[in-house]
Design goal:
With 88 residues, the chain is α+β, with helices and mostly antiparallel strands. The protein contains 3 helices and 2 strands; from the N terminus they run ααββα.
């Protein structure tokens, strides 16, 4: 079954937990994509003002370090406790 990335919606504790858990499990693929996306696709967005380009934001701006991934795990684990409490 292909994975889908939810773009918008009211986030619930369980949804946030699943999102963090899935992203942590896919971290190698995410890191690989973010590392190569600049070269493949160019910047993720361009900031403009009055028709002038102020800044191009590369995909690599969203690369997570080992410390960042550790924080993802911490947030996921905190939410896991919350989800468990709500289902009791």
């Amino acid at each position: 079954m292909p994975l889908k990335i939810p773009l918008h919606g009211n986030t619930r504790w369980g949804t946030a937990h699943k999102m963090l858990d899935r992203s942590y499990n896919l971290r190698q693929a995410i890191d690989l994509f973010v590392t190569s996306a600049d070269q493949l696709y160019g910047p993720i967005t361009t900031v403009r003002s009055n028709g002038n380009i102020l800044k191009r934001i590369p995909w690599s701006a969203f690369k997570l370090s080992s410390r960042d991934w550790s924080r993802v795990v911490d947030a996921r684990d905190i939410l896991a406790v919350r989800v468990h409490i709500l289902t009791i």
